[in-house]
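Input record, target 12 of the design panel.
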């Protein structure tokens, strides 16, 4: 009779298996329902993200357009203030007392600073709107350095700081946009001069590798705490310092330099420690990928 036992248990086992199957089915159905719900949620989130991305695009466009209009409209009154201040400073309408001359110089300096800010804003708006044209061509670094040297000569008013341009070593003719590169270096150099009370500002260029050149602007100025290095190339970022309070500035020059460098296929970087001076770098390709119709040159 021992053979009877499994038969007696068989319906029971089948029953249990069916019950387990039914329970599993229910679990699966619940899981499916949960998955469907999650899917619907994900789709809704995607749609929301699309809407937000659209809104962000529109807001950025509006901001760029506003900046472009505003800075453009500011140029006329600033131009008028500068012209009138120049007439006064040149004593066209009669002599000035020492105090009046000092006040006119203050108007001139402030208007010039305002003008630079407006220029930076306009450039930034153009970059953001993708409206900056890159015009690459072949040029020699010695020519670029000599133009920069000439540009800074009249404004080197601090006898305790020298501006040195090192002879470029082993850098061939470049194919890039020399005016954009000059604008980046001008920003670095004028910052370096602004934040250096004594010592030197040195501009140099060397070949980074087969395809790149590294420009460096180093100074012996106040330096920048490494805590700020990550943010310094963003819009409107300034580091608090007594010089900063005196000279104000827009906080836009470095972010503009970064974007211009990117347009030229390059990058910017900074080495600095508080109280030990700073070195700003821009690394660019020796040859910007040729634009259609650009003439061939020598490397
Ligand atoms: P701005 O000079 O108009 O304030 P920038 O974007 O050119 O704006 O510079 C941002 C900030 O970075 C400056 O305000 C200053 O705090 C800091 N900075 C830039 N260059 C130097 C430098 N060579 N030495 C010390 N601080 C600097």
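The sequence produced for target 12 reads:
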């Amino acid at each position: 009779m021992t053979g009877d036992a499994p038969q007696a248990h068989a319906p029971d086992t089948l029953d249990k298996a069916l019950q387990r199957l039914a329970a599993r089915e229910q679990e699966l159905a619940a899981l499916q329902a949960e998955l469907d719900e999650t899917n619907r949620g994900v789709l809704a989130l995607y749609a929301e993200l699309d809407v937000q991305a659209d809104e962000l695009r529109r807001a950025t466009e509006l901001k760029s357009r506003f900046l472009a209009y505003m800075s453009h409209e500011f140029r006329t009154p600033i131009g008028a203030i500068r012209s009138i201040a120049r007439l006064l400073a040149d004593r066209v309408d009669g002599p000035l007392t020492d105090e009046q001359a000092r006040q006119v110089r203050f108007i001139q300096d402030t208007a010039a600073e305002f003008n630079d800010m407006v220029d930076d804003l306009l450039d930034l708006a153009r970059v953001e709107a993708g409206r900056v044209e890159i015009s690459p061509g072949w040029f020699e670094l010695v020519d670029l350095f000599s133009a920069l040297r000439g540009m800074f000569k009249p404004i080197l008013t601090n006898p305790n700081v020298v501006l040195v341009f090192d002879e470029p070593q082993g850098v061939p003719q470049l194919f890039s946009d020399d005016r954009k590169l000059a604008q980046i270096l001008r920003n670095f150099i004028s910052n370096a001069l602004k934040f250096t009370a004594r010592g030197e500002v040195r501009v140099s260029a060397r070949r980074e590798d087969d395809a790149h050149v590294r420009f460096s602007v180093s100074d012996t100025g106040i330096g920048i705490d490494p805590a700020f290095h990550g943010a310094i190339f963003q819009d409107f970022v300034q580091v608090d310092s007594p010089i900063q309070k005196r000279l104000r500035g827009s906080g836009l020059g470095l972010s503009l330099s970064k974007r211009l460098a990117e347009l030229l296929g390059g990058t910017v970087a900074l080495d600095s420690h508080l109280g030990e001076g700073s070195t700003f770098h821009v690394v660019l390709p020796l040859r910007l990928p040729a634009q259609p119709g650009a003439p061939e040159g020598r490397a």
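The longest helix spans residues 4-89.
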